[in-house]
Structure formats: structure tokens, C-alpha cells
Amino acid sequence: MTKGRAILLSVIGPATYILLRNLVSPSKPTEKSYIELVSALRNHYQPTISITVQRYKFHTRARKTNESVPDYVSKLKKLAEKCDFKDTLNDMLKDRLVAGINDEKIQKRLLIETDLTFEKAYNISVTEELANQDAHALQTPTGSGPVNKVGCSPKTAPNKASYTHSAHPMSSGAYKQGNKHCFRCGDKSHTAPKCRFINAKCHYCSKVGHIEKVCLSKQKIQQPKKERHEQTNAVEAELNLDEDNSDLFNIQSDSVTPPLHVDVIVDDVQMKFQLDTGAGVSLINQTDFVRHFGNTPLDPASVKLRSYTGNKLTVVGEKLVNVAVGDQSARLPLKVVEGNGPPLFGRDWLQEIRVPWKKIFNVDIVKQPPELDSLLAEYDELFNSELGCLKGVEAHIDIEEGATPQFCKARPLPFAMKKKVEDALQKLESQGVIEKVVHSDWATPVVPVVKAKGDAHLCGDYKVTVNKVAKQDKYPLPLVDEIFASLSHVQETALWSSCAVGLFQRTMENLLKGLPNVSVYIDDVLVTGRHDTEHLSNLRGVLTRLQENGLCLQMTKCQFMLPEVEYLGFKVTKDGINPTESKVRAIKEAPTPTNVNELRTFIGLVNYYARLLPNLAHRMAPLYKLLRNDEAWSWKSEQQSSFQKIKKMMSEDVMLAHYDPDAELVLSCDASSYGIGAVLQQPGPNGELKPVHFASRSLTSAEKNYAQIEREALGIIYGVQKFRQYLLGRTFTLETDHQPLVKLFVEHTAIPQLAAARIKRWALILSAYSYKIKHISSKENACADYLSRAPLQEPPDLSDLPEQEDVLLIDEELLSQLPLTAKTVASETQKDPCLAKVLQSTREGWPSKCDDDKLQPYFSRKTELTVEQGCVLWGSRVVIPSTLRPTLLLDLHSEHTGTVRMKGLARQYFWWPKMNDEIEQIAKNCASCQETASAPPSLPVAKWNWPSGPWKRLHIDYAGPYMGSMFLVVIDSYSKWLEVIPMKSTTTTATIQQLRKVFANLGLPEHIVSDNGPQFSSSEFKEFLMKNNIRHTLTPPGHTASNGMAERYVRYFKSQLKKMEKDEGTLQDKISRILLTYRCTPHPTTTESPAYLLMRRQLRTRFSSLRPSLDSQKDAETFEQNTSCLPKFAVGDKVYVLNLRAGPRWLPGIVIEVLQR
């Protein structure tokens, strides 16, 4: 709980901390528990809600005009959340629904019910509402058009087949003559003097007294000038007819109504059928059937067909086919007949499949429904030419402290603009936007802009005055992805533009907060809906908010009930998102760039649509190459090909599906040697995955050196982080075509210990997400596998090179390379026949099987191998080429360390197959080690308790005389840290003097164990330990095993020193080498090195340089960046040199040599 409090206080920020301190005063936040602090903040930010007020709001909420029953019930449930009705919730909802339904018919119907529940009341209300809407739709008169009649006559057998056409019984002219209606709105329930639109303004002709729906001016323009022919069909089923044939089954008739068609998928073939409600069956002519389905065998038909006129049709056969229209599908019979008529969608199919009538009747000219006209007339005051004034909001411009006022003189105006500017100023003054002043410390020049109507729009050039010192309002604008993610299930949209900048985004978001399906981007407001009723309801909510807050709209800038709209540079439809035609044309017609600036402009335009374009990072790679600082401008065929491919991509029909928060999410990732990419997908209505978002980028120079498995993993991390807003907090499917990653990144599975560090780091990032990883083939991953997979050139065949023998003889050239470096290892790796193949496979990907025995040890570790600066690494250990292994073994055993210690030291730095066996062998073959081998161990004695930490208990003893000297040995029982000090004298004073030096470096211990030597049993030594509060234990005389740790390390030191007796160097040199190797080697008891246990860090050794270091590379890059702006000199350049001696400060000189740093 203390940890939680500390974390909370460290992340809440200074403002919240001050608030919290005031809330818990007079106590301090550090004196309160985590739960108390959270409770104080929650009580402050979430004050207690008044249940009485919330219940009042619930009981007074009635259904509004044009509000559907589901919407009304949804609002009631939202209000009931804070009313604490508990078990009586359904009864309260039922009572409020009956009382507030605001529909007399529905209310009477509900009151008739005896055992009325909320669920029953809701179902009755929705049913009654839909029935009223359907009844109203059936009463709407229809226009003139063809009628196709189908009948069944079991005995009549006409001789010829043809189609006939008959008109509707009521023509448009008859309707106009037989029905009186109001000429202001078209309604038949009242006359014109009683119409509520008597003062309404027509949106088409701008005249007062009628609405656009009945505008005569509009009807005259839309009246057709010429009739055209229409194809009309009629098919009739007959049971017993003669076998007469006919080639005709369509004729032409005069009509103004075009035939209706529906898109149908028949057995996975996209076709267009003519909709014919007069046809009893659905059919297709034999020619079209063979063209689409080949010579598919047909079943014999059990019925005969004739036209409405009685002519017989020859039925070739029938076939059961899979029919799909939109998200509906069924298996239905299709008749195949002779003739050349169009495919007909008959009543037999209509009984099984519901046709999208709204889409079929859709035409280019969008007609506004009468409900929209009524809605706009209701908010007629909102659409006026007056300037609106936002209520309750005051905008302030905050100036930085100490800012100096800027006064710019008025700029001279063209004579033709002077009158327009004066009129504009007078208009703004009359509207109260500006006012005249005699004196001002600030003045900004006017920039007039001529509008399309010819008048002037005034702007201020504030960048030279106020903008320099104004404090910026950093309110975040919504991202394009965030806006588009909220457009799922869009069917219709409404869009308008307003006049506002700066604080307008914050104000508009607060003003329209809580309204469904509304998006705001500065001065663009987008209102969407799944159908007319919902869309109009959402639009009413927006118009109400705007009117209540004093805003006005310009009708000329508003568009309503559109099936598609251009928004933020994209074309948004119900099916998805496309680039706008103007932007596509700008890219398609873009000239070839002639310099870097023009190229940047083109790339910036294309990158705006990166979310729509797969393969973009790879296609743009040749163009990105020219943007590098070290690359000279050279437009070659490679760049021209890339340029043309990108323009072609934009010419294709590019569309992204809308993000659906309720649908499954699939993230597919892939990588190549050039770049990485990801695609976010969701299943469509037919189950097929559709792209929601594309993302890709090129690899950096360092990332191109990654192993293939690391590049594939990097692609996954890039995709997850790119689409973090979509993926975090929900479960998704992660697809990859790299099989090893499935085992590494499978959820709730530990990462192998020897996996590369970056793989472990990426696995930790993925642990924050909930996903199911899945392996798919490259074919299935085609959407993400867009990067080129062209095979690289094979390296030279190294199989013919002679194999290296395992020897223990090292020539002088190899000895001169000690200590080895990463550069040497990388060079020898390229020459090693086996490691060269390992290097290539690690970079480009391993095969699925490996039959080479020499490669098998590496193949089994393929998921843990990486490449850094030309060196192969297994985890953090460098894989040593065969030519360097003998050298490294001798260097490893140069201090005659034992087998276990050599293995422990080697495992920290390097590896190769069967390395442990070779280490054991070199130790067995060492004559010095065998000659100085220890005797077998004695019987075990009682053990000391394990200390609680480092440098708690020390064991000390004297070693020698050996090689003419005595040595004071100090060993820490916890970390096994060893100190060996050569002593000229072994007196108590000399011993204390050396111990003081050791304690000065490492601190005072708590306990010292020693034998009964005179140095340790003297009163002077006891007094020294007592003053330093150190407990002293003397071992029993004659029982050296009681201080076995000190005795053991005395033997170890003497043994190591004896082995190095013939080596070069002074006694102190040999002691230092022994101590450094010992302190850096993992101890077999603790499995950690003494240095790490005592100081929590590893000491640097000769082997540390084997590991590739990125620090030097980063330092070089940083130095290059910091010095890139400095002048570069060449030999012979004349320069001035700073004189550090007496005389002139600068002396002329000539560059004679350029040195590289």
C-alpha cells in the first residue's frame, strides 16, 4: 500500500498534488494511505448525485416530436441509471413509457392490456409505431410506369412468344386532376390559407410562401422533354403445353420509366438481373448461361413458360444455384430458356430474398424527403444572413508578460478595392464585431479577400503582430483516424462549414457533447445516421444545440441527406473511405519532380493517403533515397518507375472499410529486407476480411542488419503500436507468416532465456495486449506481404574450401590479435564455411528443414540467433568462428583456472558447438594444472550459517611463506570476494594497517573469523575490533577446518600462484591477474561472480570487447551530426589559423593534409 501511495503521488502532477494536499489538510498526503488518497480525490471529482433531482428528470421526460420509441426508451434507461430504482426499475420504465409516449393510439393500446410489463409495453409500442409508418407509406401515390402480368393457364397454348406492356391504372395526370392539395406544401389535409408554411422561404427559388418540394420553378426544370423506350418483360408459368419454340421474349414499349436492375451474385459470378415482379419465375437465356457458367449440365424443367400475350418460351432446363444479394443468400432454381432477352429476377426469388429497393431507386439527383423540409422550416431562424453570437463563451487573447505592443501602419489598397473594404468595415461595425477607436498601441494591417459574390472578406495579418507574443491554446484537435473510427454503420450524412478559428474546436466539442454520430473538426461538423429516422433525429439534436447557443448557419454551405460526402480530404460513404477526386487528379497529373523541394511536396501529398495505400513504404523507397543529405540529386529509371507506380496506385479504386467496434479485429504483419508493413482488417457481411487501415515504413540502416526473425518481430511491434488505439483494451487476432514467432510470442508463454534482448523487450510490449497469434501462409498474408520478396544473390559456395582441423597450436599472427575484438570475429565469420551459411540464414530466414549435421546445432537455436555488426550472437553470447577457437581457449586458460570457472566465464561472452568438451579437454591436457592438483576432499564439517548480505562475515588467514613472502588472505563468506595482500611483516600492527585499507574501500564487516595466530589473539587486535564494533570468533586450536573458507582460499591462491611461477611478470602482477579473473568469474556456489554480488556490477575484462557495442557507433553518428554544419577543407585550401603564441591572433595558412577523426 505504501508503494501504491508513492506511485500515485509521483504521477498525479503538481496541480493535482496541491489539490490533494488541501483536501487532506491538516494531515500530509504522505501520512494517508493509498485508499484514503484515492477516496479523497474521487469524492472531489465525483460529488454525490441527488437521487431526488435525477428521479424528477426521469418522471418529467416525455417523448419528443419525431423521436422514435427505441430512442425514447434508450434515453429513459440512461436517466434511470442514477435514480437507484433497484428492483422497481422495470415498473418505473413501464409507467414512464405509458405516460410519456405522446401518441394517443399507442397509449390507448397500452391501457387496454391487463397484465402489462415493461417488455410487453415496449414491444407493443414499437410494433404500433412501425405499423403507422408502413400504413403511411402505402397511402403514398405512385407514379406511372410499366406493369408486367404473370398468369397460369394449364390448357391454353399460343403459338408465338412476346412481351407486352400495360400502363398503371392511375397516371400522373389523373392524380393531379382528381386530388386537391395545398400548393404551399403538397399536403391534402388542409388548404393553402391554413398551411403553416405560409411564411416559409423556398430553398430552391428563395421565394416566400411555399417549400422546395412543391416549387413550380424546380418542376419545370426537371420536367422531361422527350420520352424514351423501355424494355418490358412478362413471363407466365404453364403446366401442359405443346413444344413450340420462339426466339423472342422481349419487346420495346414507350415509357419514361427505365427498367430496374439488381446486382446479384450467382454461384460466385457477379451479374445484373432485371427486376420483374410480373414474372412468375427467374430465368436467363442460354447464351448468357453458357458464357458465365460454361457447359454445366442442366436438370430437366418441370414447367412450361409463356409470355403474357400467350406465346410459348422454350425452356432448355433449370439449375439450382447459390443466389446472394447484399448480405442475403439462398439456394434457388434458375430457368434457362432460348432467346436473347435479359436475365429476369422473378417473384419466386423475391419470396426468398428481400431486394434493396432504396438502393435500386437511387438516382443522381438526391431529393430531400418532406420530413427534412419540415425540419429545416422548423429551424428557419437558424438559417439567416445575420451574424450569430455564441452565448456564454468569451474569447480572450492572452499575451506573454513583458510583450511590447506592435503597431503596423495601414497598407495602401488598390483603388478598385477601397470601396469594398469600406463597405465591409461598415458592415462589421453595424454588426458589433468591430468598433472605432481614437488610439491603440496595437495595429494589424488588413488583408482583403474577394469573395465569389464580389464583396470583400477582411482578414488581419496577425503573424506580424499579435501571433508573435500570443499564448497558444494547445487544445488537441481530433486525429483523422479517431473521426473515421466513429463512422461505422454510416448510411447518410449532413455537412456544413462555419466561420471560426482558435478556441472554436474546444467550444464546439463542449457544445455538441453527448450527441450521437456527430464529429467536429474546427469548423466542419459531420452528422451521420444509419437510416432516415435516426439521421433526422441526430440532425435535430445538432440544430437545437446550435440555435439554443445563438449560432447561425449559411444554407449555401450546408448539405443534407447525402449518401457520400467529402470530409477532411477524404470521400466518406456508407461502404468505406476513398480519396477525393481532386486529390487523386492532383497526384495523377503531377509533373516529374526536378529537385528535392518538388519531391518533398509530392511525397507529402501521397503520404496523406498512406492509410489507404498498401505497399507504400516499399514503392516510395527509391524516392526516399533522394531525400538523404548525403545523396546527390539523380532522377533515374528507378525513381521514374516508382513515381509512375504510385500515380497508378492512386488511379485504382482504393477503399477502406469503416471501423466497427463490435466486429472482430485481425492484424496482419510482415517484413522484408526493405521495410515493414501491417494491415488492420475486419470481416465484412459475407465474412471476407476487408482492410480498415494500411501502415508501412522503410527500415533504417541498422534495422536492415536485423535477423529475419527480428525483422518479422519488428513488423508486429510496428503494427501493434501503430494501431494502438484500435487494439488496446480488446482481444484481436495477430497473423504472421513466420512460424518461429508463433512459439515466441504466443500469449502466456515464457520467452526462452537465450532469446535476443530486443525479442524479450518486444515480448514485454506485447504482454500489454490481449491477442491470439496465428500462423498463415504467405499467400493468405497477401495483404501484408506487399514488400518485394525477390531472392538476394547467393553468397559464394564455400563447401569446396578445406576444413579446419582442431589443433592447439597457434601461430604468431593469431597471438598478436589478442585480445580479440568484434571486428576480428566478424571478419573471420565471413571466412568460416559453416558460419557464413548461418549468417545468411539468420538474416534472410532459415529453411523449414536442415539436413546438414554441421548446421544442426545452429538450426535448433534458430529462433535465438541474431546478427550484430557482422557477428552471429546466441542470446548475448558471440558465436566464435573455428579459426579463433584455439586462441580463445588458450587465453581462457592463461591463468590456469579450473574447468568449472572457465565454463562459467566463457558462458558470459561466447559460444560454439561442443565448447564445454573442448574446455574440459584443455584443462586435462595442461601439465601445470595436473602437477598442482589438490588432494581429495576430507570429511565434511559443520557449516557456517549463510550471511544475510555481502561483507557481513569475513574469514582471514595468513598464507606462506611462499616465494619469499607472506600473504594476508581476506574472503567474504557471502559474495566470495577475495583480497590477497603481500606482507613484509605479520605483526598485529601491520595486520591492522592492511585491514584498515581494505575496510576503507569496502566498509566495516559485522563479524571476523580467524585462527589463534598471535596476530589475531593479541589484545591490540581485540581492541581494534571492539572500537569498530566488529564481533570476533577464534577457531579452536588444531582444528583448521573450522576456518575452512580462509584455509581453502589460501590453498587456491597458492595453487594459482604456483601455476604461474614460470610466467613473466612481477609477483604483484601475478596476484592482480589472479584476483581480476577470480572476481569476474561466476562462483560455483552462488552462480554469480563475486564482483556482481558485492558491487552489483560486472568488472570489465579482456573478453568484454568481444560483444558488439552500439555506444561507439552512436557516438560516431552523434559526432557526425554535430559536425555536419562545420566547414569541410581540402588540401590546398587557404585558411586562417588561431595563433596561441604572441603576435596576431589569426595567421594565414594552407591546408597540407586532411586528417580523419
TrEMBL record:
<dbReference type="GO" id="GO:0016779">
    <property type="term" value="F:nucleotidyltransferase activity"/>
</dbReference>
<dbReference type="InterPro" id="IPR043128">
    <property type="entry name" value="Rev_trsase/Diguanyl_cyclase"/>
</dbReference>
<protein>
    <submittedName>
        <fullName>Uncharacterized protein K02A2.6-like</fullName>
    </submittedName>
</protein>
<dbReference type="GO" id="GO:0004519">
    <property type="term" value="F:endonuclease activity"/>
</dbReference>
<dbReference type="InterPro" id="IPR012337">
    <property type="entry name" value="RNaseH-like_sf"/>
</dbReference>
<keyword id="KW-0548">Nucleotidyltransferase</keyword>
<dbReference type="GO" id="GO:0015074">
    <property type="term" value="P:DNA integration"/>
</dbReference>
<dbReference type="InterPro" id="IPR041577">
    <property type="entry name" value="RT_RNaseH_2"/>
</dbReference>
<feature type="domain" description="Peptidase A2">
    <location>
        <begin position="271"/>
        <end position="349"/>
    </location>
</feature>
<dbReference type="InterPro" id="IPR001878">
    <property type="entry name" value="Znf_CCHC"/>
</dbReference>
<dbReference type="InterPro" id="IPR000477">
    <property type="entry name" value="RT_dom"/>
</dbReference>
<dbReference type="Pfam" id="PF17921">
    <property type="entry name" value="Integrase_H2C2"/>
</dbReference>
<keyword id="KW-0511">Multifunctional enzyme</keyword>
<dbReference type="GO" id="GO:0006508">
    <property type="term" value="P:proteolysis"/>
</dbReference>
<keyword id="KW-0808">Transferase</keyword>
<keyword id="KW-0378">Hydrolase</keyword>
<dbReference type="InterPro" id="IPR050951">
    <property type="entry name" value="Retrovirus_Pol_polyprotein"/>
</dbReference>
<keyword id="KW-0238">DNA-binding</keyword>
<keyword id="KW-0255">Endonuclease</keyword>
<dbReference type="GO" id="GO:0004190">
    <property type="term" value="F:aspartic-type endopeptidase activity"/>
</dbReference>
<feature type="domain" description="Integrase catalytic">
    <location>
        <begin position="946"/>
        <end position="1098"/>
    </location>
</feature>
<dbReference type="Pfam" id="PF00665">
    <property type="entry name" value="rve"/>
</dbReference>
<dbReference type="Pfam" id="PF17919">
    <property type="entry name" value="RT_RNaseH_2"/>
</dbReference>
<dbReference type="InterPro" id="IPR001995">
    <property type="entry name" value="Peptidase_A2_cat"/>
</dbReference>
<keyword id="KW-0645">Protease</keyword>
<dbReference type="InterPro" id="IPR001584">
    <property type="entry name" value="Integrase_cat-core"/>
</dbReference>
<keyword id="KW-0540">Nuclease</keyword>
<dbReference type="InterPro" id="IPR036397">
    <property type="entry name" value="RNaseH_sf"/>
</dbReference>
<keyword id="KW-0064">Aspartyl protease</keyword>
<dbReference type="InterPro" id="IPR041588">
    <property type="entry name" value="Integrase_H2C2"/>
</dbReference>
<dbReference type="InterPro" id="IPR021109">
    <property type="entry name" value="Peptidase_aspartic_dom_sf"/>
</dbReference>
<dbReference type="Pfam" id="PF00078">
    <property type="entry name" value="RVT_1"/>
</dbReference>
<dbReference type="GO" id="GO:0008270">
    <property type="term" value="F:zinc ion binding"/>
</dbReference>
<dbReference type="InterPro" id="IPR036875">
    <property type="entry name" value="Znf_CCHC_sf"/>
</dbReference>
<dbReference type="GO" id="GO:0003677">
    <property type="term" value="F:DNA binding"/>
</dbReference>
<dbReference type="InterPro" id="IPR043502">
    <property type="entry name" value="DNA/RNA_pol_sf"/>
</dbReference>
<feature type="region of interest" description="Disordered">
    <location>
        <begin position="138"/>
        <end position="172"/>
    </location>
</feature>
